[in-house]
């Protein structure tokens, strides 16, 4: 049932369907109170907490599988890019990055970077960005670009799958956090501390 609810969560972004199930599993049999945040221990029956443990194990397996699939998409992207670029250009695209503060200069990149950050971003990360930001990133790495249409075609071929996987990974990660918060009975204030 939890696995089906996870699929519903992924399809409809319905977090409550899974967290409600988890809360039900962790409720003490004799006390059906709905204020889960006041729980201080795993007071559900051991078989019920085992269900939650199994759900967490399942979610971890999903994360591993999705990360492997995302890496396959990235490798296919690099292969297509290698076919579209000459060796020197490909080396630059694959092995160079840009500081976020540098990428901030391109308006198309601003939704994806922090103006103050000196973190280096790589081109493969822009697979999760929109096409205008990807194009701006390529131009910042390369200046004048030969076979620009081939480089954009590589992005277009792999962006939808990459983005879908990145979004599902983020959603699953968020779900794992929520399940763990409920498992440990964290209050809203405690969750804010953990997340900050």
Task: Describe the structure in your own words.
Helix content is 67%, strand content 3%. The protein has a two-stranded antiparallel ribbon with strand order 1-2. By secondary structure, it is mainly alpha-helical. The protein has helices spanning 2-12, 15-26, 46-84, 87-95, 100-103, 131-142, 148-183, 188-195; strands at residues 97-99, 120-122. The chain is built from eight helices and two strands. The model is unreliable at 29-44 (pLDDT under 50).
Going across the biggest sheet, name each strand in turn: 1-2
Spell out the helices and strands N to C.
Answer: HHHHEHEHHH
Q: Taking Cα atoms only, what radius of gyration do you get, to the nearest Å?
A: 22 Å
Q: Outline the low-pLDDT stretches.
A: 29-44
Strand fraction: under 5%
Category from helices, strands and their pairing: mainly alpha
> How far is the first residue's CA from the last residue's CA?
32 Å
With helices defined by DSSP (H or I, 4 residues minimum), what is the helix count? 8
Could you estimate the helical fraction of the residues in percent? 55-70%
């Amino acid at each position: 049932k939890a696995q089906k609810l996870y699929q519903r969560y992924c399809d409809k972004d319905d977090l409550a369907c899974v967290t409600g199930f988890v809360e039900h599993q962790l409720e003490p049999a004799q006390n059906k109170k709905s204020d889960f945040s006041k729980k201080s221990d795993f007071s559900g029956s051991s078989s019920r907490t085992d269900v939650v443990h199994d759900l967490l194990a399942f979610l971890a397996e999903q994360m591993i599988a999705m990360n492997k699939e995302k890496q396959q998409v990235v490798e296919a992207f690099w292969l297509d890019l290698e076919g579209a670029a000459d060796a020197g250009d490909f080396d630059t695209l694959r092995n160079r990055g840009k500081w976020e503060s540098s990428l901030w200069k391109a308006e198309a990149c601003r939704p994806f970077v922090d103006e103050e950050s000196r973190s280096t971003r790589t081109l493969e990360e822009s697979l999760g960005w929109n096409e205008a930001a990807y194009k701006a990133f390529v131009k910042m790495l390369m200046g004048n670009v030969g076979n620009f249409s081939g480089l954009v075609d590589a992005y277009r071929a792999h962006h939808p799958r990459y983005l879908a996987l990145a979004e599902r990974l983020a959603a699953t990660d968020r779900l794992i956090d929520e399940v763990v918060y409920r498992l440990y009975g964290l209050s809203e204030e405690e969750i804010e501390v953990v997340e900050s």
